[in-house]
Amino acid sequence: MTACSWASAKWPHWQTNDHVLLRVSAGKAGDDRAMHMDDVKLVHELHGELEEAVGVTDGPLATRIARWPRSFPQYTVGHLERVAAIDNGLARETPGLFVAGAAYRGVGIPACIAQGKAAAAKARQSG
To answer: Per the confidence metrics, is the pTM higher than 0.85?
Structure first.
């Protein structure tokens, strides 16, 4: 397990009085064990980790598995310096062109939205 969010606490339309909806992610760069497990084994392993980490004891009533291999950028050491070099090169060579998105400064939707807004503001300022 690389992440777990209490989805029913984040999105009111998923709330019920007697159950919680968890969204669990598994796998990361250099650790593709989850990609090689069948669905039953993956759910079993993740349930065990949830039990250890947050005390979830009841098994899932339902599951939905989506496998997204190689779907998120994996930043390496020096990434922000490389992004700064891209920004500086664009400012020098192509003023008014800005980059935003998961490949640059954050993979989540909120980070991408913030990047888009910042790029739009810079574009407005540059005129």
So the answer is: no
